[in-house]
Amino acid sequence: EREEKAPSQLRARIFEAFIRQTLSAMQALTTTRPTLAHQCASTMRTHRHASTTAPALRITRDTILSRASSRENDSSSASTSSDESPNGVSDISYPWAQPGYRGAVVSAMDERAQAAVVSAAWLAVCAATYECVTVVGPALEHAAPSLMAWSKSTWPIIGVTYVAAGFAHFAVHDGFVAMMPHDGAWGIWRLPGSKSFHVNWTGVAEILGGAGLMLGSLPFNLTPEALQPILTPASAACLAGLSMAVYPANLYMWTHNSPGPLPPDADESMLTLPWQGHLARAGLQVFLLSILIALARGA
Cα separation of 110 and 195, whole Å? Predict the structure, then answer.
């Protein structure tokens, strides 16, 4: 009988010792957990860029909103819009949706005047592009045919620019969302679908269009013969239309001083683009559109 009780007593003692060790370990873990959490929080504050891409992007949006609204006390009293960003930030909560943000002249006008200014800017880009395609381009080709022939051979390289821009739509997604005009901007802007959706599909379109430009003009006859006559012109035509479709975002940055994509450590001087920058970007828009239209026409 004693021999039968000995194993059971031994098992009971082992089980009791195990329970004590487990409770001690749990108590020690509970005691050190706040310290570990505090250390992790301190590490994240100190090394805010050492995390993965997603936290960095959240920091970018938070940086934009906090710094942009630091001098706009009235933004907190704005009404809530139904159009929200993917992070739940209402459209009107962006401070640049308010009239005259950071000295913006156009957004401080009445809506009819805003619509007139935006329409005039759009027509100016179209007119300048038409002039380049029909007058300036042929004149340069007549004056320096060999130089223009060499230049045309390099035009498909701009596909790299569009591919990079397309990937940027996802790498700094929140910055491109901030560029999108808010619902009712200029008194005329109404676009179904979320801002995030439009940033995503235009990014994919830019990647595909840019890749089409490059693949349609590969050196050493690497492009399949069946695709050579159609791939580059079709890609260029699609990118030209896409450029005009996304141009309102550039106009919105000009009329409302929206910041657009920014690095996480952006300072005050980077929150708005000076008028010289907007003018240079408009010129670049005309330049790219002219090249794309020429490629679409088989130049």
Answer: 24
Place of tokens 């890749």: 211
User: What is the C-alpha R_g of the chain?
Assistant: 29
Residue type, 210: G
pTM of this prediction?
Answer: 0.68
Q: State the DSSP code for 102.
A: G
**Among the ranges given (29-33, 113-117, 154-158, 161-165), the one the predictor scored with the smallest mean pLDDT:** 29-33
User: Which residues 6+ apart lie within 8 Å of 95 measured at CB?
Assistant: 65, 68, 69, 72, 75, 101
- Percent above pLDDT 70 for the chain: 68
Contacts of residue 243, Cβ cutoff 8 Å, sequence gap at least 6: 285, 288, 289, 292
Round to whole Å and give the CA distance between 259 and 74. Answer: 18
CA distance linking residue 271 with residue 245, whole number of Å: 24
How many Cβ atoms are within 10 Å of 9's Cβ, its own excluded? 10
**Counting runs of H as helices and runs of E as strands, what totals does the chain give?**
10, 0
HSE at residue 298, side-chain half, CA atoms within 13 A, is 3
Please compute, for residue 228, the number of CA atoms within 13 A of its CA located in the half-sphere on the CB side. Answer: 9
- For the stretch 132-181, pLDDT in tens is 999 999 999 999 999 988 888 888 889 999 999 999 999 999 999 999 99
CB 189 within 8 A of CB 183: yes
